[in-house]
Specification:
Number of helices: 0
Strand order of the largest sheet: 1-3-32-31-30
CATH class: Mainly Beta
Number of domains: 1
Distance between the termini: 27 Å
Strand content: over 45%
CATH topology: Neuraminidase
Helix content: under 10%
Number of strands: 32
Largest sheet: 5 strands, antiparallel
Radius of gyration: 21 Å
CATH architecture: 6 Propeller
Length: about 450
């Protein structure tokens, strides 16, 4: 059976092509890809590895049980023949009726050399309503035990060589989540996460801002480094703030190093992590004692995280978490950061490029202030442009905007994906490089059940 459907311009995908070079319109084609998810599936996450293989994770629910599934899509030798594309059967990584899963903080998978490398989910702490821990499952190239999903006839695979583990060792009944991971080499990978060990187990809206161990140290017994971006970071108001932490991990489950990256960050915004030829760059939403919550980045080189710096001084003052984190992309020495801000009570989506691994950024490029909801993602096209995506509210719901943005701020091409849900249940749409184009994944909310849609946009 064919794995694809092609849509006309009047159907799901509106493609608006704009050429500023005076040439003919590029030949862009959108192909809807049947994937191995089934009904009651939500919150896909995409990751393109070093071979161009795309790894997708998602949640499948049966009653109160959530199951983490993953699958891969390998680009064909000839990307012009889209009919050759076919997702693998899914792999069942783990399942439980006691996970924390929501529209913004959901599982992920990373891969290397065409194979999945690690996946993560969040385990609730029994008896603590606002407590959950990061759990990571290392995945070897081979795994065993075949199962079958009778509902859709797809084969799954479970049972791994190494057991799942928790990368943080604080043992506090607090929130840990919003994980980003990147492979470092064939045997190690790095993970960052928001870590609430100083929050006292309160929820985001009721965090206790009194009392902590004021040395701000990471008491897990590992080598680490810490940073305070300014004097405000030692303010007692932030004594129980969420922190950003990371760890170098072995594919065998070994905790090799752990680090405190920032001791006061926004409580529940997505993080982002990219690998460079020098190490890693992390992006996240900062938090100051004045409740300014702008985008910050930090670099990991030679085993050390440096002092974080701002990408752009939006000056967004908000005494709550907007649940709208940034995304990073990197290519050939160029870093691009994409983010949402509500500064001055105007919702905006912005983009900025850097030529020095995120130490400084060029002026921010305004992409939207027409009721954007954010939920951004980004892929570098080359050193001169990036593909970005964000959700924008419209009269009939929401639309996913996908644009190729040049470094000078001009829009080379723009694509609008119609019929998106504006509600949180639609999650964060995903954008990833694939072949000569892009792969897009999102949750579609139907009358009976949710499903996952994936589309290949080729000819870019």
């Amino acid at each position: 059976m064919k794995q694809f459907k092609r849509y006309s311009q009047v159907a799901l995908l509106n493609i608006l092509l704009m050429s500023f070079l005076g040439c003919s319109k590029p030949s862009i084609e959108q192909v809807s890809v049947d994937n191995p998810s089934s009904l009651n599936s939500t919150f896909p996450r995409l990751f393109t590895d070093n071979t161009g293989t795309v790894h997708m994770s998602w949640i499948h629910k049966i009653g109160e049980v959530a199951e983490l599934r993953i699958a891969t899509l390998t680009p064909p030798s000839n990307t012009e023949n889209a009919d050759d594309l076919q997702w693998s059967s899914y792999t069942s990584v783990a399942k439980s009726d006691d996970w924390f899963v929501n529209w913004a903080d959901f599982p992920s998978v990373i891969g290397l050399n065409g194979n999945p490398m690690a996946a993560h989910w969040l385990d609730k702490v029994p008896g603590s309503p606002y407590s959950y821990h990061v759990t990571i499952q290392p995945i070897q190239d081979k795994f065993t035990t075949q199962i079958t999903d009778q509902a859709n006839g797809q084969n799954g695979q479970v049972a791994f060589e190494h057991t799942a583990f928790v990368p943080h060792t604080d043992n506090t009944n607090t929130e840990h989540g919003f994980v980003s991971m990147q492979p470092m080499d064939s045997s190690t990978f790095y993970a960052i996460w928001l870590d609430g060990r100083n929050t006292g187990g309160m929820d985001h809206d009721g965090m206790d801002h009194d009392g902590m161990d004021h040395d701000g140290m990471d008491h897990d017994g590992m080598d680490h480094n810490e940073h305070s971006k300014d004097s405000n970071k030692s303010d007692t108001k932030l004594a129980t703030a969420m922190t950003l932490r990371g760890a170098l991990l072995g594919r065998d489950g070994e905790l090799i190093e752990s680090h405190l990256i920032d001791n006061a960050v926004c409580d529940c915004c997505n993080t982002s992590l990219v690998k460079t030829d020098r190490g890693l760059i992390a992006a996240y939403r900062n938090r100051s004692s004045d409740e300014i919550r702008d985008l910050y980045v930090s670099r990991y080189e030679n085993g050390v995280w440096d002092t974080p710096n701002t990408v752009h001084n939006d000056g967004w003052q908000i005494a709550a978490c907007p649940v709208n984190g940034p995304q990073l992309a990197f290519h050939s020495g160029v870093t691009a950061a994409l983010w949402f801000t509500g500064a001055d009570n105007i919702p905006r989506v912005k983009l900025a490029f850097s030529d020095d691994y995120g130490k400084t950024f060029n002026d921010a490029i305004l992409l939207s202030e027409n009721q954007p909801l954010g939920r951004v993602d980004i892929v570098m096209h080359n050193e001169e442009s990036a593909w970005v995506s964000y959700v924008e509210r419209h009269e009939d719901g929401a639309k996913l905007h996908i644009k190729q943005v040049m470094r000078n701020g001009s829009i080379a091409q723009a694509i609008i994906l119609d019929d998106m849900e504006a509600s949180r249940s639609s999650g964060f749409p995903q954008l990833s490089s694939f072949g000569d184009g892009l792969l897009v994944a999102w949750t579609e909310i139907g009358e009976r059940a949710s499903t996952i849609r994936t589309s290949y946009i080729k000819g870019l």
